[in-house]
Amino acid sequence: MDLQLIIDHPEWLLIVLAPIFLGLMAAEYLLGQKRGKLPENAHYHLPEVLCNFTLAGMHQLADLITGLIIVKLYLWLFGWRLFDIEMTATTFMLLLVMQDFFYYWFHRASHRVRWMWAAHVAHHSSENMNFSTAFRQSLMYPIAGMWLFWVPLVIIGFEPKWVVFAVLLNLGLQFFVHTQWIRSLGWLEWVFNTPSHHRVHHGRNPQYIDKNYAGVLIIWDKLFATFEPEVETVRYGVTKPVESFNPLVVTFKSWQEMLKEVSQRGLSLRQRVKLVLSPPDD
Ligand SMILES: [Zn+2]
Ligand SMILES: [Zn+2]
To answer: What is the pTM of this model?
Structure first.
């Protein structure tokens, strides 16, 4: 597959990576369930795996549909760009680092603003952790406003198709941190988001909540004081469990609860706005 083709059709990137994803899931299944080398909460359970795969499919479909509108908006904003950036190895690296920086803030906002958490909670509501957990995405991300976080890159002057490519590459690389197979990656732990750092991010142990928001580089958490090392064994999931393997329930339960609260009678507009913008309690 030639790189230019993927840059022109960035949505194909995850499809191209799919055989690697499937191969690693098969290996993790064999190691965990057939050889018993991984803890019970790393095992693959069919109802949950089917739910995770369906969530990934729903997310991809929503991204494809809304992507057309969002790319149009990006192209319009690109007309107001501050710089003309020619894509070279150096500017490509710069784009990846900057996109990862904005990913950190998108992810942090997704945990601290209820409106955005309503979408992101689907990723966190599993009490297991294996590669298939990475597939738990929400079709509501475009509604939650994920695309807003990449607007600065377009305004700076990175071509929208490269920005979308960087976003999808970041998402694709995060597949590899969803596992209990790898305990530590040595010196890489200092710079990169690793399975150990990301296990902490999925923990509901009190000291692990709202920590390690990194996409690819862990340096942002260290810079902005949200880093927590993995010490205590991680208990995965959220404090208010979803208790369902139905992808529709996993996707919409938090939205339903939020909309019910926000549409209560007797609240002022200010109270309603505050309710959707304040930190979630789960
Ligand atoms: Zn998260
Ligand atoms: Zn994750």
So the answer is: 0.95
| Residue 131 near residue 24 (C-beta atoms within 8 A) | yes
Dihedral pair phi/psi, residue 122, rounded to 5°: -60, -35
Among the bound ligands, the one closest to the CA of 130: 2
Rounded to the nearest angstrom, the distance between the alpha carbon of 81 and the centre of ligand 2 is 33
Q: Which ligand is nearest to the CA of 120?
A: 1
Token couple for 83: 């710089």
Ligand minimally distant from the alpha carbon of residue 133: 2
Structural contact between residues 210 and 112, judged by C-beta atoms closer than 8 angstroms? yes
Q: For tokens 């057939």, what's the residue?
A: 34
Ligand 2 center from residue 103 Cα (angstroms)? 13
Q: What whole-number distance in Å separates Cα of residue 93 and Cα of residue 258?
A: 39
- pLDDT 10s digits, 252-263: 999 999 999 999
Among all ligands shown, which has an atom nearest to the Cα of 211? 1
At 82-138, the pLDDT tens digits run: 999 999 999 999 999 999 999 999 999 999 999 999 999 999 999 999 999 999 999
Rounded CA separation 87/83 (Å):
12
